[in-house]
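Researcher: First entry.
Model:
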Amino acid sequence: MQNLTVGFAVCGSFCTFSRVLPVLRELAGEDFTLLPIFSAAVYGTDTRFFKAADFRAQVEAICGRPVVHTLEGAEPIGPKRLLDALVVAPCTGNTLGKLAGGVTDSPVTLAVKAHLHNGRPVVVAVSTNDALAASAPNLGRLLATRHYYFVPMRQDDPAGKPTSLVADFSLTLPTLRQALAGRQLQPLLLGPAKMG
């Protein structure tokens, strides 16, 4: 898996950012060249979880390059064949909908469209409260679309949030490895998280 360039696109499921940073560090430790890509919301929104500038600085330090955060920055990904694979982690319900509908009005969705033009894998780590409700048709559509691979996911709180799904971010690297070989990591749907 050496000498491969992986895009790492981050969408605004802000509560999962603390789980994204270890994934980036793991990928960097595998000698991937990493290209970070942020949605506009991630690039400019301060939250109770992270200040935007602090999160950006951590990601840029791990990846060793500036974050792509504009449409102009994302567009060359396809024509220049910049990536061997693209990870979207976390992928919100909003972004799922845009990807399923072919909407490319953000740096992340344009990066995916440009990358898919080359027939290369997109690894999606879902994190949305409505995955089993309004976002379910979009999830289903992408599950049946070529070149999309999903990080295995589970209901994170079946009693409190019965329509929510969150990827097990610790499985991002194995999913990426399988995706590069044209296979979906299984099982895709995981049981409840172990407590304690």
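Researcher: Second entry.
Model:
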Amino acid sequence: MTRFFDPFRDFREFDLFRRDFDRLFDTWRTASPWRQGFLPGREPRSYPLVNMWEDSDNVYVEALAPGLDPDAVELSVMRNQLTISGEKKSTNGKIAPEHYHRTERAGGKFIRTFTLPGEVDDKKVQAQYKSGLLRVILPKAEVAKPRQIEVSVS
């Protein structure tokens, strides 16, 4: 018996295949060490941990980064992308590694890039580091702010 082309079934199967393939690459991308932070002896994870939200004028980013030297942090903004990079120093360098019983507070270089919900004015970005929390305020660009358009009645 010859099977005829059924566009509904065949496109549905192709769509399922495409979703599985996309999921595979998303898993690979998030597990790759050059896109993540550091945790020796464990799988890599994102560092620093971040919360992001917005209001009508600004986008806010809070990054949890305890023990970080503020001078070792670099922020860069381009259109709708924020990059946080730097280096977290390892634990006390006076103690020899063989004397540790347990080390969970790792150090090393990190970099994270976030896509912001819209373009921001990179000349007005403010950042503050206090008590292990990096707070970044990114004012939205004028073109990204919502505008009220008046409808005229004729």
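Model: Note on the second entry: The domain at 37-144 is CATH 2.60.40.790 (Immunoglobulin-like).
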